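Retry 2 of 3 after timeout on previous attempt. Resubmitting structure tokens to design endpoint.
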């Protein structure tokens, strides 16, 4: 007979890996909380820390009812949400760059917002793997990339174009659609979709 051991039991698994959780977004009006439970199955005849068989179990438990999730139909809806709901800190939006990802379902309802990175005045790190991890764990089928330009110039850079294409290629592998990439300031925004640079 096998026995179930959690990842966080250091006695049976020497490397600590905490369960993956998304933070609750109370102030945005749509709290999101995803919990991924991971379990290991061990052969009881093995008397050391090496597992002969490992089984991963995932549980998906959103805390927001479908009808309570905001609907995003266009770039203006997205920009209004980002600014009016203070998804971007207006006190810091012209000070340093932030990158966020909106996770969306097939009904264009917002599942949650993932804070990807926070950088300097002229850039921030973007890890494609983290974007795809968040989309898959949230069970999202669509996503929107969002970041700000502290300079106030919404024109995309060469790096912005490259990131957009890289995410688009990664999404194809998982049948996830990238709907848009918004570059924002407190006063206006640039939409890749509106400019015809993303084909949904």
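Retry 2 succeeded. Sequence:
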């Amino acid at each position: 007979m096998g026995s179930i051991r959690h990842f966080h039991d250091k006695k049976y698994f020497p490397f600590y890996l905490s369960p993956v959780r998304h933070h609750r977004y109370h102030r945005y009006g749509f709290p999101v909380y995803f919990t991924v439970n991971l379990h290991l199955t061990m052969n009881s005849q093995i008397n050391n820390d090496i597992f002969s068989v490992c089984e991963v179990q995932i549980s998906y438990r959103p805390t927001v009812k479908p009808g309570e999730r905001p609907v995003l139909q266009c770039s203006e809806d997205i920009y209004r949400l980002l600014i009016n709901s203070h998804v971007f800190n207006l006190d810091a939006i012209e000070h340093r760059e932030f990158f966020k990802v909106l996770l969306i379902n097939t009904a264009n309802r917002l599942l949650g917002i993932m804070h990807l990175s926070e950088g300097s005045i002229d850039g921030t790190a973007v890890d494609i793997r983290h974007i795809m991890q968040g989309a898959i764990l949230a069970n999202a089928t669509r996503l929107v990339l969002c970041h700000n330009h502290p300079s106030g110039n919404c024109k995309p850079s060469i790096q912005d174009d490259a990131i957009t294409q890289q995410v688009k290629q990664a999404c194809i592998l998982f049948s996830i659609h990238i709907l848009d990439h918004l570059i924002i300031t407190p006063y206006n925004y640039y939409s890749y979709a509106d400019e015809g640079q993303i084909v949904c």
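Attempt log closed. The longest strand covers residues 110-118.
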